[in-house]
Amino acid sequence: MFRPLAFSPHNRPLSVSSAPRLARLGGLALGLMASVGGCRGEDVSIDCENQTMAFLREVDGEDRQLRDIPESGPFPVTMTITEDSLNRLVEGIIDDEVPFAGSVPFGVLPEGPGEAEFEASGVPNVIIREVVGCRRCVVLRVNFGVRLDQEGDPLSSGSGFAEIAVPLTLEANEAEGTTTILANYAEAFIDDWYLSVYGFDSDKNETLAGALKILMTEQIQQNFEPLALFSIGSWSIGEGNVKLATRRVFVQSEQKRLVLGMSTNLPLPDSGGLDVEAPLPEGVAIGVSMDPVLLDTMARRMMEEGEIPTRYDEDGEADAEGIYAVSINTIQYGGARSKLDTEFRVWRTAEGYCGFANVSMPVTVALSDNMKRIDVTAGSATLIPGMNEGIGVAAEEEASLVDENQDLVATFREALTEQLAETLNFEELDVEGSRIIFTTQDVVVDEAAINTHLDFEIFARPEGE
């Protein structure tokens, strides 16, 4: 997983600029060795070969390898879409091809056999309510007009409504990294309806009304292809190997919303996963939630891909053969509404006096000034006393050693916060033929999730775009 570096920790030439620092380190190292007592031998905590091997063991022990995307939960990412937001998203889609049209026999009229021709009128409305026997159905309410003919001659006209139960299904496109939510009209059925024409009232003639409902259901299933409502994409991060895919759509009738459960190929602990029943604050159009453990795993993967540097030179710049290194201890909820706690380890692995120091750095997750994205910033890094080794112990007593590594911390801080922001700013929702502009209303960090609350405007996409 982690390739050993090509240089020897004992024979790297020393730079002239490092001489004063090394002289100071030498004095501190002698003090450290003296403190352990002569009978115990040399202090291996300052031995560079020992610390290099310890660093490699720690990094090799991390699970950074990608896996197959799980087909089922628990889900580390969810997207919640309210009923009102769903209608705003798909209004232009379902209005172009309303699944309610056709002609069916209308029994025997006094004038002879009749035929009823149905046609939708107005813009359909999507309703999220309980549908008996179909937990993955939404309801499409359609107003319609009906014309009654007898042997080609018009007899009468009427009107009514139909509530069509439509199962939602998922269609994955692995090549494009998208999942499309489809209205599967091939399995749709009329759950409720009303018709009034030529003195006929469906509430008063249940037998004929039931037969007409069956015939119209068959028309819908036979004449209308599955309709793509919207698509959810993946992350665009790092080398493009980290994937996110929608694996399940929950139709929650009591909360009147859809919840999309998403899985990733990142290696997550078995304990990871979100509560798909978690409430969405009133007035929020779309909510995106992520398990905080996802950020820890994503950061480690970005170190594997080199987006967050692992090795650094004496000036704190990224350097694959640098004598300093960083490994992540934890990234977790920080006990406040917008805080994460980050702990990492700074290693010195060459040039005479080695060891590591554990460092903490608070991370703040907040709205940008223009409310278009989430900003991630990090505060000052502070040394965690105890549990350090070698030069890390010396740094507890010599503040200048901490100061001299601030450039390294700054480089790591910038790369880390950039990758965390790329992870959290997930707005990969697309409606064919439309352009969606999102506004971030709020972001709230708690122990269970990082919750982003979005609103949006949707416009017709210009031709040729």
CATH class of the largest domain: Alpha Beta
Write down the domain tally: 2
Low-confidence stretches: 1-41
Helix content, binned percent: 10-25%
**Mean pLDDT across every amino acid position:** 86
- The CATH H-level homologous superfamily of the largest domain: Bactericidal permeability-increasing protein, domain 2
Please name the CATH architecture of the largest domain.
Answer: Super Roll
Query: Strand fraction band?
Result: 35-45%
Rg, alpha carbons: 32 Å
Work out the number of β strands: 22
Number of helices: 8
How far apart the termini lie comes to: 42 Å
Run of helices and strands? HHEHEEEEEEEHEEEEHEEEEEEEHHHEEE
Structural class: alpha+beta
User: Shape, please?
Assistant: elongated
The largest β sheet comes out as: 9 strands, antiparallel
The CATH topology of the largest domain is Bactericidal permeability-increasing protein, domain 2
Structure commentary:
- The structure is a single chain.
- The chain is an alpha+beta fold.
- The protein has two domains: 77-81 and 241-459, Bactericidal permeability-increasing protein, domain 2; 98-223, no CATH class.
- It is built from eight helices and 22 strands.
- The protein has helices spanning 19-35, 48-60, 83-96, 206-223, 293-304, 391-397, 399-404, 406-424; strands spanning 77-82, 101-109, 112-127, 137-150, 153-173, 178-183, 189-197, 200-201, 227-232, 244-252, 257-264, 286-290, 311-312, 324-333, 339-348, 355-367, 374-378, 382-383, 389-390, 429-430, 434-445, 450-460.
- Strands 2, 3, 4, 5, 6, 7, 8, 9 and 20 form a nine-stranded antiparallel beta sheet that branches.
- Helix 5 crosses helix 8.
